[in-house]
Write a structure and sequence with these properties.
single chain; alpha/beta; Rossmann fold; four-stranded parallel β-sheet; 6 helices
Length: about 160
């Protein structure tokens, strides 16, 4: 286990795991670590690439989760609820006996995941889940730029 993630006695670790179709999860992972700290070893990601079979993706998830201990928690985000990456990752988590210690959320975006990464060690997972889902709903807004119609008349 890397030095930064050495287990403190009786300390449970919380991992944020990102799974997606294409390169979404690794790209989001990059953005999250840019904003939340480059040396974060508690954020993990993998993706189902075009042409990749379910067995190969499952093997990638198994390898990704090899650092997760039996007492650790997983907060997993996926691009689509019910999509292959989420379903396959959930099956691997169940194989590892970690399903009871896993919270799964579909429809991930940057504010949602960043809130989880930065807040996961400050509140219990149930409270965090409520906070990130409500926060994500609040983030969906239309961005409107006011246009001054008077400028068009000067043309």
């Amino acid at each position: 286990m890397p030095a930064a993630m050495e287990r403190k006695e009786d300390k449970q670790l919380k991992y944020v795991v990102l799974v997606s179709h294409g390169e979404f999860a690794p790209g989001l992972h990059s953005a999250v670590t840019m904003l939340g700290g480059e040396d974060r070893e508690d954020v993990l990601s993998t993706s189902l690439k075009n042409g990749m079979g379910a067995d190969e993706f499952a093997d990638n998830v198994r390898e990704l989760l090899s650092v997760v201990g039996e007492d650790d928690e997983i907060i997993m985000f996926a691009d689509i609820v019910g999509g292959s990456p989420l379903a396959t990752a959930a099956n691997v988590i169940a194989e590892k006996g970690l399903l009871a210690k896993t919270t799964m959320i579909g429809g991930m975006n940057l504010p949602l995941v960043l809130t989880a990464v930065l807040g996961k060690d400050d509140v219990d997972t149930e409270e965090l889940k409520e906070e990130i889902i409500e926060g994500a709903k609040d983030q969906i807004k239309e961005f409107v730029v006011a246009v001054d119609d008077d400028d068009d008349e000067d043309l």
